């Protein structure tokens, strides 16, 4: 089933502690965001790719898109202060579509089968997000003392992609903006509408390149895929 993907790429990567947007850092000679773009370029179900970028990085990114022949990139929106603002700018810029997928440009190792499962679930039930079961024991602490051990069997670590019926996602994003509500993922905005959001099991390889150690894991993942 077909979809349009929105890729927020307008961050600055403060936690990566590089001197530029972390998405421009290279893994084996290629900037991180291009790995992400190539997954969608190569997915025959992906109709269009839209990017939220910083105004001052737009030309640089557009040049990469041309050089790597990423023909599915159909447009750019100017990113905002927070990730949620960047996603909303993109949602408001794209032509209406059936299902929209929101995916961090900083997650280059997303699995194609997971994308397909998300899109199918969003087509039938409206909202589906990628997640993996929590591996560690999770506890709550107050002033350094454990107050509760949380039942791990009910806990998921949430990733992107997050897939939604386009009209539902746009409504949720605009309502959050009008209400001054800031969430940490798209699903939170949809949950506020009391709309059920389904979990689709993803892979542990779908890491977000966030801190310097993620570059080590990223290289290792790419190397393992060459074997
Ligand atoms: N993003 C965005 N607009 C923002 C902030 C983030 O489009 N105002 C994008 C990032 O480019 C990234 C994705 O959202 O692809 C996930 O955000 P995150 O990992 O937090 O990236 P940064 O905000 O760049 O990193 P940091 O929080 O460490 O500064
Ligand atoms: Mg951030």
Description:
- Pfam families: IspD.
- The strands form 3 sheets. The protein has a 7-stranded mixed β-sheet with strand order 5-4-1-6-10-7-11, with helices on both faces.
- With 227 residues, it is α/β, with parallel strands linked by helices.
- The protein has helices at 32-41, 58-67, 83-93, 112-125, 166-179, 186-191, 212-226, and strands at 3-8, 26-27, 30-31, 46-53, 73-78, 99-102, 127-133, 138-142, 145-150, 156-165, 198-201.
- The protein is globular, with a radius of gyration of 18 Å.
- It has one domain (3-226): Spore Coat Polysaccharide Biosynthesis Protein SpsA, Chain A (Alpha-Beta Complex).
- Bound molecules: cytidine-5'-triphosphate and magnesium ion.
- The site of magnesium ion has 2 residues, from loops.
Number of separate domains: 1
Number of beta strands: 11
Q: How much is the radius of gyration in Å?
A: 18 Å
Question: CATH superfamily assignment?
Answer: Spore Coat Polysaccharide Biosynthesis Protein SpsA, Chain A
CATH class designation: Alpha Beta
SSE ordering: EEEHEHEHEHEEEEHHEH
N→C terminal distance:
30 Å
| Sheet with the most strands: spatial strand order | 5-4-1-6-10-7-11
CATH topology: Spore Coat Polysaccharide Biosynthesis Protein SpsA, Chain A
Biggest sheet architecture: 7 strands, mixed
Low-confidence stretches: none
Strand content: 25-35%
The total count of helices amounts to 7
Provide the list of bound ligands, each named once. cytidine-5'-triphosphate, magnesium ion
**Fraction of residues in helix:** 25-40%
What coarse outline follows from CA principal-axis ratios? globular
CATH architecture: Alpha-Beta Complex
Structural class: alpha/beta
Overall mean pLDDT = 97
